Amino acid sequence: MSGGTYSLVFAVPERVAVAVGALGTVDLPAGGYAYTGSALGSGGFSRVDRHRRVAAGDHDVRHWHVDYLGGHPSVSLVAVERLGDGRDAECRVARALAADPDSADPVPGFVASDCDCSAHLSRYPNPDAAERAVAAVYDARRE
């Protein structure tokens, strides 16, 4: 599959304080979280595989904000959605998820450095709600 846009869904079973590099410590309430990124470089979706390894504890290097979340010992990666059309839909997907009525809040600062979005990470009441929202946004983009 060529590169494109992806979203990672995380389960955060209890409130956590995540040290996120230069962003500082971010306090995250329990719930489900959806993070959206792009994988358009030569490695394509190998970036998603790297995020999976970080979340599984098999890779310790934290490069992106989401690595600090996924690498936290209390957090688990529960789902991944991909849109492999080779186009950059990262910001459009992130904004759609942040605007979802079930989303409690976008998390400021978790964002791509090359865009003007306020966040690419949105919180939901639970992981199932986050997974449903992500699936709905990606299904709509595929139509």
Provide a brief overview of the structure.
With 143 residues, the chain is α+β, with helices and mostly antiparallel strands. It contains 4 helices and 7 strands.
In words, what does this structure look like?
This protein has 143 residues and is an alpha+beta fold. It is 30% helix and 29% strand. It is built from four helices and seven strands, in the order ββββααβαββα. The chain has helices at 46-56, 65-70, 90-99, 127-142, and strands spanning 4-12, 16-20, 24-28, 31-39, 76-83, 105-106, 121-124. A five-stranded antiparallel β-sheet has the order 5-1-4-7-6, sandwiched between helices. Strands 2-3 form a two-stranded antiparallel ribbon. A hairpin with a 3-residue loop joins strand 2 and strand 3. It is globular. The protein starts with a strand and ends with a helix. The mean pLDDT is 87.
Integer-rounded radius of gyration? 14 Å
Structural class: alpha+beta
Could you tell me how far the N terminus lies from the C terminus, measured between alpha carbons in angstroms?
Answer: 18 Å
Number of discrete helical segments: 4
Contiguous low-pLDDT stretches (5 residues minimum) are none
Along the chain, the helix and strand elements come as EEEEHHEHEEH
Mean of the pLDDT scores? 87
Got a strand count? 7
Order of strands in the sheet with most strands? 5-1-4-7-6
Largest sheet: 5 strands, antiparallel
Residues in β-strands, percent: 25-35%
Specify the overall morphology. Answer: globular
Portion of residues within helices? 25-40%
